[in-house]
Design a protein that fits this description.
Helix content: 25-40%
Strand content: 15-25%
CATH superfamily of the largest domain: FAD/NAD(P)-binding domain
CATH class of the largest domain: Alpha Beta
Number of strands: 22
Largest sheet: 8 strands, mixed
CATH topology of the largest domain: FAD/NAD(P)-binding domain
């Protein structure tokens, strides 16, 4: 029986950040992190867009608004300290019609409330930043949006955690709750406090501890198409005006840290939690559970799941995805977009009572355990201040 003061389940960017924050505050504490895979960050944390968001999409009363701007600053500083390159190219948000111009005003207001610098531009000014951009009358430029490689950040944080004395046990899967701790295939691990940062399985683990009763994870698959154009084909990220009623940002252009461009992502409903390929990681029980839930949402949901599913499934078509991206920029050709990148799965939380997708981070727990149930995008951007917030909460309730 191995004992720790704090046991973190899940070695993504959030789990690693929390483990490091715990060790920073409680230097004498034994902090253990378990990760079911042979390395950290092999799921959402290593498969996300790589965009460091600025923080103007979110309503001012949300945790996402609270953490995105300061998270952007903190991650930018961390990357500089660890010599991890960032492409500080900014982001244009463009409109397609009059209705979307009005939505630009809402984004500007949110940016002002969240203290995020934004520039309100004319069409001509937008084209000075990116000559290929398409927009209707106006656009917004976010100068503090940047892009990087999350995998390099994960690797650096693993190295830091090892130096700081955190015990990282890879290839160790949570099986079930046990008195004073948990059971893994290798035995019984005990801890004074358990932090569940298990992403796609966070709800399942939380249920074992008596939490997540009205929540379930609904997986959505994100795909990107990579351009074969030379680096610098676009100068900045280009995003559409998002539908603020749901947590997805729509198909957009991302300029990666190396200057190459990709388009996406999709938000295609997956049929089990780690369905990266056609039958990858197939689990029959998950398939039946999620299929049943998605079928129910087809008939009744607060966010029109049926329309979302139909529109997203079309994005498996490469010409269709390219056609959507061509609404944002000129010179977009299917010949340039032939290679699909590795898919990611978004662990999106669903309120099964109201049948709505949760827009903000959701945390539940007590003096013995803390469960992070919706640590999704912009989780990479928010990871450092979010970890500080979680540890603040643990300090208050675990005394």
């Amino acid at each position: 029986m191995a004992a720790s003061d704090f046991l973190v389940i899940g070695g993504g960017i959030v789990g690693l950040s929390i483990a490091r924050e715990l060790k920073s505050r409680f230097s004498d504490a034994a902090v253990t992190l378990i990760e079911k895979e042979p390395a950290c960050g092999l799921h959402a944390s290593g498969r996300n867009s790589g965009v460091l968001h600025a923080g103007f999409y979110y309503s001012a009363d949300s945790l996402k608004a609270k953490f995105t701007r300061v998270g952007n600053e903190a991650m930018t500083a961390y990357c500089a300290a660890r010599n991890i390159p960032l492409n500080k190219c900014g982001k244009l948000v463009v409109a397609k019609n009059e209705a979307e111009v009005a939505q630009l005003d809402e984004l500007l207001q949110r940016g002002a409330r969240n203290k995020v610098p934004l520039e309100n531009l004319t069409e001509e000014q937008a084209r000075e930043i990116e000559p290929r951009v398409k927009t209707y009358q106006r656009a917004i430029f976010s100068p503090t949006t940047s892009s990087g490689d999350p995998r390099r950040v994960i690797q650096a944080m693993e190295q830091d955690a090892n130096r700081e004395g955190i015990s990282i046990i890879r290839g160790e899967r949570y099986l079930k709750r046990a008195p004073g701790g948990i059971i893994t295939p290798k035995g019984h691990l005990t801890a004074r406090h358990i932090i569940n940062a298990a992403g796609l399985y966070a709800d399942k683990i939380a249920l074992d501890f008596g939490f997540s009763e009205k929540y379930r994870i609904l997986p959505f698959k994100g795909l990107y198409l990579h351009s074969n154009e030379q680096p610098g084909a676009l100068r900045t990220n280009i995003y559409p005006v998002p539908d603020l009623r749901n947590p997805f940002l729509g198909v957009h252009f991302t300029v990666k840290d190396d200057g190459h461009v990709k388009i996406g992502p999709t938000a295609i409903p997956a049929f089990w939690r780690e369905q990266y390929g056609a039958f990858d990681n197939f689990r029959f029980g998950e398939f039946i559970e999620i299929l049943f839930r998605e079928a129910g949402l087809m008939f009744s949901s607060s966010f029109d799941f049926k329309q979302l599913a139909v529109e997203e499934l079309k994005k498996y078509s490469r010409p269709h995805l390219v056609a959507l991206a061509s609404q944002l920029a000129t010179g977009v050709d299917t010949r340039h977009y032939r290679r699909w990148g590795p898919p990611g799965i978004r662990a999106q939380l669903l309120d099964i009572k109201s049948r709505k997708l949760e827009m903000d981070f959701v945390i539940e727990g007590d003096e013995r355990s803390t469960h992070l149930l919706n640590a999704v995008s912009p989780g990479w951007t928010c990871s450092l201040p979010f970890a500080s917030y979680v540890v603040d909460r643990i300090e208050k309730i675990a005394r």
